[in-house]
Design a protein that fits this description.
The structure is a single chain. The protein is α/β, with parallel strands linked by helices and 279 residues long. It is 42% helix and 13% strand. The protein has helices at 21-31, 54-64, 78-92, 115-140, 160-185, 205-208, 213-219, 224-234, 248-254; strands at 12-16, 36-41, 67-72, 97-100, 146-150, 191-197, 245-247. A 7-stranded parallel β-sheet has the order 3-2-1-4-5-6-7, with helices on both faces. Helix 5 links the parallel strand 5 (146-150) and strand 6 (191-197). 45% of the residues are buried.
């Protein structure tokens, strides 16, 4: 008898952000299995520049076959994160998976980057990852499927990342180091903590509003590649794969995927894809 395919059915995912883009794609992939997905996000009301709120995301999760909980809050605020953790655990009976998805970006250097933007990146990226991971630990440690997945890059000492955007690099590497620390802290246990990063640029609603959006679409992939890679990681037994900085394309190749054209933002484009930063 063939081995049953792993599933996220009945497992509870708590994600920061997720109103749109990569986070929402990951949430919807989990929902197709019948997962329970709680989203902590600030997007309570529609933004004319960007589609989607935490409420519309919750509806899409339900329509995809999952159960959803929308929590309006800020991942930087301890009280908001604690409220989301407690609400998810109460509604669904525990927490199995944490996805540190929320992130802020500003690609400017010291002397150019306003302090307010620097503080925002550090607070959302590093503080947010620390808060959500820390406050969910009591629930993760009692789960048979404990997984932490952080959307942050491999640690790459190439100085060009410091030359080009040191503040953003510091914030993203902070997310990675916290996650690798969690993995080491729970080494030998049924507990996984990994990072995931795209091999190429990803086209989202945010990028379609930027100058050069048409070209970005031609050289980028859709969020679905990150969702499928995240699914492959999160369906592995807890503790089997941990303490790793994974890249979406490599994860999917290992899982047997060979058709990557399905993920192109413009399937008809005959141009090389653009490699993402930090790789």
């Amino acid at each position: 008898m063939p081995e049953a395919r792993p599933s996220l059915a009945g497992r509870t995912v708590l994600m920061s952000g997720g109103s749109r883009g990569i986070g929402l794609a990951i949430a919807l992939r989990a929902a197709r299995d019948g997962a329970h997905v709680a989203l902590l996000a600030k997007t309570d009301t529609p933004d004319p520049r960007l589609p989607g709120t935490v409420h519309t995301a919750a509806r899409q999760i339900e329509e995809a076959g999952g159960k959803a909980l929308a929590v309006v809050g800020d991942v930087r605020e301890e009280s908001d994160v604690r409220r989301a953790v407690e609400a998810a655990a109460e509604r669904f009976g525990g927490i199995d998976i944490v996805v540190n998805n929320a992130s802020a970006i500003a690609l400017a250097n010291p002397g150019e980057l306003p302090l307010k933007r620097y503080d925002l990146m550090m607070d959302v990226n590093v503080r947010g990852t620390f808060l959500l991971s820390s406050l969910t630990l009591p629930y993760l440690r009692t789960s048979a499927h404990a997984q932490v997945l952080t959307l942050s890059p491999p640690l790459n000492p190439d100085p060009r990342w410091l030359r080009d955007h040191a503040p953003y690099t510091v914030s993203k590497y902070g997310m990675t180091m916290l996650t690798l620390g969690l993995a080491e802290q729970h080494s030998g246990q049924a507990f996984s903590a990994n990072c995931l990063w795209p091999a190429t640029t990803i086209v989202t609603a945010a990028t379609t509003n930027m100058r050069g959006a048409e070209e970005a679409l031609r050289v980028s992939r859709t969020p679905q590649i990150m969702a499928d890679a995240a699914y492959e990681i999160l369906t592995r037994p807890a503790g089997d794969t941990t303490g790793r900085c994974l890249v979406d394309e490599e994860v999917l190749r290992e899982a047997g995927v060979s058709d990557f054209d399905q993920y192109r933002g413009d399937p008809g484009a005959d141009v090389p894809l653009r490699q993402d930063i930090f790789l």
